[in-house]
Structures are given as C-alpha cells and as structure tokens.
DNA sequence: CGAGTTGTAATTGCAACGGTTACTTCTGTT
DNA sequence: AACAGAAGTAACCGTTGCAATTACAACTCG
C-alpha cells in the first residue's frame, strides 16, 4: 500500500506558501492551481495541518501561516498530520491468530519489536528533513532555472 | 495507509511451516486455522510467495517448502512478494503539478531524493531480519511456555 | 451589504482489501 | 481406474479509503 498523496501535496503546499507568501495571497484556489487538484482537497489538507498545530489559516480573508520556524517542522510532523493511522501502527497485523496454536499465540510477540524497529527507521529518516530544507532546495532549483 | 496484513500473514506462514513441518502436513487449511482466516486467502499469499521464488507449494498432496536457507529469506523479500507497489514507490506522488508554476515544475525534483531515502531506510531495516530470526525467536518463546 | 474565502457535508467513481463460494486441476492411495 | 485430499483460480460481496466534485453555510474585510 502506498502512502497517500496527501503527504506530497502537503509538502507542496508548504513550499508554495514559503515561495509565494510575499508575492501573492496564497489561497486554496491558488494552491489547487499549482498542485492541479480541487480547492476542497487543499482545504481538507490545510485543515489537517491546522489541527496538528503546524499552520494557521485565515478564514474569510485567506492565507496560510506556519506557526513555527520552518526548521522546526519536519516531514514526520507533516506525515503524522495528514496520514493518521489507527494506533500509529504502520503494519496492519492480522487480528485474530488462533490462541490454541503455539505459533498463533506467540506470533504477535515474536514480530512486534521487529515491526516497530522498521517503522521507527522510516519515521526517524522522516524526522531528518524539515520544511526549511524545502525552502533552501527550492531556492537553489529556482536559481538554476534563471 | 497501513501496509496490508498479507505481510504479517506471510511471516506467520513461514513460522508455521518451520515449526510444524515435521509434525503435520502444513496445508492451506492448517495455516488458515492458525491464522484464523480463509484458506483461499492463504493460497493467494502462497501463490505470491511462490511467484517470488521464495517457496514451493506441493500441488495435490499439499505442503510448503522454502527454496532457500531461512537465513537467506529477509523480511524485505517477503514484503516485496506480497505487497507489490506500482513502480516500487512507497509514496504516492500527486501526478500533475502545474508546470507553469515555479514550485509545481520543481517539486518533484526537490522531493525525490528525500522520499527515496525515507523508503530506503525502511527497506534496509526490513533486510536486517530473516526467517531464520523467526525460527530462533519462536523456539525461544515456545521454550519459555513449557 | 457584498465579494472573496474558508469550513464542511454529501455524493460519486474507483480501487484495494479481506472474505467466501464454487469449481477445476493435480497427486497419491486404494 | 476411481477416489479423496489439496492447490489454483475465477467470480462475487461488503467495506473502506481516496480523490474529486457540488453545494452551501460561516466568516472577514472593504
């Protein structure tokens, strides 16, 4: 299973907000046009980012503002905000192994720490990247374009 | 999005095959009972593992045999076998960012290596665990039970 | 007040998942 | 040769999540 495109869309949103905040009023329509999707999709993601406390959204007038320095917003924060998972567990464990089977009643214990370490490896790597990295990377790419 | 339970089911299968291979004929019915699901679900997963070259399945008579030493079958092998993903990309990138927008036409380049490194972190950790680890871990758990 | 914008509910089409039934194909045994 | 047991597989179901869309209420500012 793939991780929802909401994640890359959210990163795209942050990059747009950062790049265009002084030039344009960055509304859900504006963002939808850059991302090439529907404004409602954007608003829903903005809502998730807002609920997670990562941004503020100006009602009525429009506009998006990060609530923290960009270096303090990691990919992990964004991921957790837009792709909430039941119990925070990346792996969907089959629910009811047979407790009368020796393997069935021990498999969960056997796998648990291994699955956790795999999930942790992914999430730790996500924590290494921040929105500030996006800011710098985009500046560089735009400079190369010119 | 969670990773399909086919992954933990497949690991459960390997553990059962290893634990019961001398005592019982390990059929899809037998496995379905330990895992507490439908035999057809098991057969479908066995088919995926077979296609990936990880096991052989005895038609007619029943039974599952790994094709390699257990230490040479990693969690990654199992994951790739049962959870095939389009283009092998963990992250679903939104398809059509607007090329007329400076951010839109650069976002893919900007994110690509970062997303790849996150995926790689997960997959590398998956490669650290093998079915042999399951064998040893299960033996230990069963010894503690006795 | 009115224009522009966000917030949100409701609906749609689609795909994947897990489950189930039913049937065919294969294999070893009697 | 027939039979029983088992894998292989197609077809279908209900549920869920996703992305998209329409429609409308709530809000803000000029």
Write the layout of secondary structure elements.
Two copies of one chain form a homodimer.
Chain A: H1 6-20, H2 28-35, H3 39-51, E1 55-57, E2 64-66, H4 75-82, H5 102-127, H6 131-145
Antiparallel strand pairs in A: 1-2
The structure holds a DNA duplex (30 and 30 nucleotides).
Protein architecture, described:
The structure is a homodimer of 146-residue chains. Chain A has a single domain (5-138), classed as Arc Repressor Mutant, subunit A, CATH 1.10.10. Chain A is 58% helix and 4% strand. The first copy, chain A, has six helices and two strands, in the order αααββααα. The first copy, chain A, has helices at 6-20, 28-35, 39-51, 75-82, 102-127, 131-145, and strands at 55-57, 64-66. The first copy, chain A, has a two-stranded antiparallel sheet. In chain A, a hairpin with a 6-residue loop joins strand 1 and strand 2. The first copy, chain A, is elongated and about 65 Å long. Chain A starts with 5 loop residues before the first helix and ends with a helix. Chain A binds a DNA duplex (30 and 30 nucleotides) through helix 3.
């Amino acid at each position: 299973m793939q991780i929802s495109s909401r994640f890359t869309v959210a990163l795209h949103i942050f990059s747009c907000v950062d790049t265009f905040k002084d030039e344009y009023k960055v509304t859900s329509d504006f963002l939808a046009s850059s991302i090439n999707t529907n404004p409602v999709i954007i608003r829903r993601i903005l809502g998730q980012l807002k609920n997670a406390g990562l941004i503020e959204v100006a009602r009525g007038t429009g506009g998006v503002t990060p609530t923290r320095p960009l270096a303090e917003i990691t990919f992990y924060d964004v991921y957790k905000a837009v792709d909430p998972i039941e119990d925070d567990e990346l792996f969907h464990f089959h629910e009811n192994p047979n407790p009368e089977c020796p393997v069935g009643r021990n498999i969960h214990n056997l796998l648990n720490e291994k699955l956790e370490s795999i999930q942790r490896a992914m999430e730790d790597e996500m924590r290494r990247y921040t929105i500030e990295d996006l800011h710098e990377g985009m500046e560089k790419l735009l400079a190369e374009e010119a």
